Amino acid sequence: MLARVTRWDMDVTSTAGTFTIREATDADADAIVAVLNTDAPQPTSAEAYLERERQANRQPTWRTRWALEDADGQIVGTSVVNASQWVRADEHILQLVVAPHARSRGYGAALLAASRDAARAQGAARLRTNIRDAHPDVRAWAERQGFTLLYHKFESTLDLAAFDERAHGDVDGALARAGIQLTDMVALGGDDANWTRLHDFFADRLTETPDMKGMPRWTREQVRQALLDEDAQPEWTVVARRGEQWLGFSILTRHPRGAYNFITAVRPEARGVGLGRALKVEVIRRARAAGFTSMLTHNLSVNASMLAVNRRLGFEPRPGLWVMTGSTSWAVGGAGDGAH
Ligand SMILES: CC(C)(COP(=O)(O)OP(=O)(O)OC[C@H]1O[C@@H](n2cnc3c(N)ncnc32)[C@H](O)[C@@H]1OP(=O)(O)O)[C@@H](O)C(=O)NCCC(=O)NCCS
Q1: pLDDT digits (tens, 9 = 90+) for 262-316
Q2: Residue 3 has what pLDDT?
Q3: Which residue intervals of the chain are DSSP H helices?
Q4: Are 180 and 276 part of one and the same domain?
Q5: What is the per-residue pLDDT across 32-66, written as a single tens digit (0 to 9) for each?
Q6: Collapsing DSSP states into helix, strand and coil, what is residue 287?
Q7: Within this chain, do residues 127 and 176 fall inside the same structural domain, yes or no?
């Protein structure tokens, strides 16, 4: 790419001629959605996009979005960079799409450069991006730009109508022998003290998940907000306890395509006796009782025990995402940071 770049929001001369990278506005919604839809498994509408924008703008975290106009003034590329409590504090999230008909002209690299510059100016050392596993060419492009693979993240689905509860009857006996009971936030009494306890328990367990390990522990407020965003209900918030001690929990929520298992986690000292599977069987029972025919969850390739539980329950992996990370350091005229 021939890039003549000193700052963004300006024209750039490249092998593809002159193009412009500027901040995107809501007035660009139709054109941006058309670009995003070239990479989306389900097309979205401008209305849905604008609603997501409104939601994102209500978050306290920093965020910026770009539009790339080609020489004819058509928007053919877009990127969004934002901070997030789901990633490390020194890392920002990047979503970047160039419409297929406009690829191989250096637009992607130019949008990436603008995104890297903006993230670095905010103090971010790295960018994290999700690439669809159906698109190995895009992953190869990201690798050429200096990104490396963190893990594979994918949706798994369970056919609730075909689920055979009797095949997991052993978990009830295992819990009884271990003196463990499954309860929920209704039975526990959904008072402030118990919700605070749940928020703390959630924050502790989250630090033990492979993707959040090493990240700052969430505050109670962050957990409370995440549960609000998921519309978590007390009767679908299942807690495993032995006497007064809480050992694990699992939360079921609603998803447009079925019941969603938002999180299942067990304290390290209580693992390996079937509690993870027992919690999931319990939320499966509740989802079936509520009339759902399908359950979804998200899995990481690096979470061996959760994958083992899901496989045993009959969850089937669906197409997913390669989660990649790259440095925000970028030399003008260079192809990425070349450090990886
Ligand atoms: C995932 C988790 C809930 C499992 O809890 P658990 O009580 O140990 O689960 P179970 O005892 O029911 O089952 C664990 C299974 O993993 C298997 N397992 C454990 N470590 C494994 C490894 N390194 N490789 C492969 N399988 C492994 C066990 O053999 C067992 O399978 P089996 O029943 O077929 O023998 C627990 O490890 C956890 O809380 N992890 C952190 C939270 C998390 O990552 N949650 C998922 C994201 S929301």
Answers
A1: 999 999 999 999 999 999 999 999 999 999 999 999 999 999 999 999 999 999 9
A2: 35
A3: 29-37, 46-58, 107-121, 136-144, 170-177, 192-206, 220-229, 275-289, 304-313
A4: yes
A5: 999 999 999 889 999 999 999 998 888 878 999 99
A6: helix
A7: no
| 281 CB near ligand 1 (under 6 Å) | no
Residue 336 lies in a domain: no
Given the structure tokens 């502790």, which residue do they identify?
Answer: 204
Per-residue burial over 168-203, b if 16 or more Cβ lie within 10 Å, else e, is beebeeebeebebebebbeebeeeeeebeebbebbb
CA of 275 to the centre of ligand 1 (A): 9
143 - beta bridge partners?
none
CATH of the domain at 252: 3.40.630.30
pTM over 0.85: no
Question: From the CB of residue 211, how many other CB atoms can be counted at a distance below 10 Å?
Answer: 17
- My answer on whether 207 and 109 are in the same domain is no
**What's the number of domains the chain is made of?**
2
**Å from CA of 304 to ligand 1 middle:** 7
272 lines ligand 1 (CB under 6 A): yes
Contact by Cβ (8 Å): 190, 294: no
Does the CB atom of residue 209 touch ligand 1 within 6 A? yes
Residue ranges of the chain whose pLDDT lies below 70:
1-16, 330-340
| Nearest by Cα to 239 from 279, 207, 194, 291 | 279
Range(s) of the domain holding residue 37: 10-152+322-327
Taking the centre of ligand 1 as the mean of its atom positions, its distance from the CA of residue 307, in whole angstroms, is 7
Give yes or no: residues 269 and 196 share one domain: yes
Q: Is the CB of 227 under 6 A from ligand 1?
A: no
What contacts 257, CB < 8 A, 6 or more positions away? 294, 296
Decide whether any atom of ligand 1 lies within 6 Å of the 247 Cβ: no
Q: Which residue has the CA at smallest separation from atom 43 of ligand 1? A: 209
For Cα atoms 22, 24, 27, give the angle at the middle one, nearest 5 degrees: 130
